Amino acid sequence: MSYQHILVPVDGSDISYSAIKHATEIAKAFGSKVTAISVVSEDPFAAADFYYTSAILKDYVTEAVKNAEESLVKAQQIAQQQGLSINTQVVKNAVSAETVVTTAEELKADLIVIGSHGRKGFQKFFLGSFAQDVLGQTELPILIVKQ
């Protein structure tokens, strides 16, 4: 089996950068294309019980996009150190497994490489497992990187 297009969600964490390293190794072996994405919620207050001003939302979105772009620049640098050029994209949508899966389908990716923070116990109960959610919502092969 050979992979043509690998999608890697990046959130600025060390484990997401480790996923970039693994994806570039696979891409070099198969001659694959790699796209790193960073998801930014356009309205993080959608379910909030209070009203907020558009200035607050504008400041949030501006800062979130800036952070996402910085994470993707670092992902590009890591890939370049591995001898590979990758595509990057900020995805403005809900930060969810569904967004990652939909983006993978839209980009016609045939492998998702995702980092897992390895939360256990109460952390996993309260914070959930994003990688596990992605795994449960797609038929695409997924490589979960834990270190």
From TrEMBL:
UniProt domain UspA: residue ranges: 3-146
Listed Pfam families: Usp
InterPro entries named in the record: Rossmann-like_a/b/a_fold, Universal_stress_UspA, UspA
Cellular component, GO, one term: cytoplasm
Gene3D superfamilies named in the record: HUPs
Compartments where located: Cytoplasm
Keyword terms: Cytoplasm
Top-level taxon of the source organism: Bacteria
Major place of residence: cytoplasm
Family: Belongs to the universal stress protein A family.
Listed PANTHER family: STRESS RESPONSE PROTEIN NHAX (PTHR46268), UNIVERSAL STRESS PROTEIN HP_0031 (PTHR46268:SF15)
Designated name of the protein: Universal stress protein
Organism expressing this protein natively: Acinetobacter rongchengensis
